């Protein structure tokens, strides 16, 4: 039986829109307060896209160019794109092919789109890892990119959800590892569909005889709905579970983790998980204070920033973990 290869992250990059939206800016819009938002989420500001400048695909391309440069490869070296988003530019085609166009790729490489919301990037990373492990591809570009701000209810009725989300993109390049033990050690993916409606954007659904008329009659159903208490309750269970699953499979303990990069859903969730895993502040990376929850983009943005800031170095054990709509949850354990 052939030995499977390991893949490693050869390059990382991120992009966030230039428009900074502070909690103070949301106060009159949503009848909220900076203190209320920070107390419940830890968020101080977020980025919102600029119409005519930013798109889900071109933000992903901006992040991808940085990742490609770090990896020392060109767009036409990419043999597969895996693009994670819940906010594609079009209903179809997916943003993966638009990213290909943005990068000027001429090699007809396949583009695969992943719809797993907050767990989307780790799901996409796992898919890319399998292709490299089996030898099918040598260079895979994985992107998470989101524009939430154009689909939020910015009235007082929507404030419980709308203050949380922001826009941005992150990307990584995967290549086969030439150093034994270096790279993605394992990935772990889970879902529990019985909770699908606890965090949802329901419309425009295809199961309506006239979906457009239904939306016109029920415009509020275009906006995200979240049962915040239930999401929190499940997140604080699933995060530690899926992290421990990765550690157990590799014969490691939480004390071996050099850097945990969780999906940036809520600072309170991150702090709970940190305490549960017994990790010190310097071993957990958080940037939700500045960007809010960017869903599929949050893990790669945080990973890119952690690398950029020198908080991850060669040989470190890095754990990525996420939980979100679906419910879905996932982890990846990486020897950097």
Which labels suit this protein?
13 strands, 2 domains, single chain, 336 residues, Peroxisomal Thiolase, Chain A, domain 1, four-stranded mixed beta sheet, alpha/beta, 34% helix, globular
Would you give an account of this structure?
It is a single chain. The radius of gyration is 19 Å and the shape is globular. Helix 8 (228-249) runs parallel beside helix 9. The strands form 4 sheets. A 5-stranded mixed β-sheet has the order 1-7-6-4-5, with helices on both faces. The chain has a 4-stranded mixed β-sheet with strand order 8-13-12-11, sandwiched between helices. Strands 2-3 form a two-stranded antiparallel sheet. Strand 12 and strand 13 (328-335) form a beta hairpin. 48% of the residues are buried. It has 11 helices and 13 strands. It has 336 residues and is of the alpha/beta class. It has 2 domains: 7-176, Peroxisomal Thiolase, Chain A, domain 1, CATH 3.40.47; 183-335, Peroxisomal Thiolase, Chain A, domain 1 (3-Layer(aba) Sandwich).
Write a compact overview of the structure shown.
The chain is built from 11 helices and 13 strands. By secondary structure, the protein is α/β, with parallel strands linked by helices.
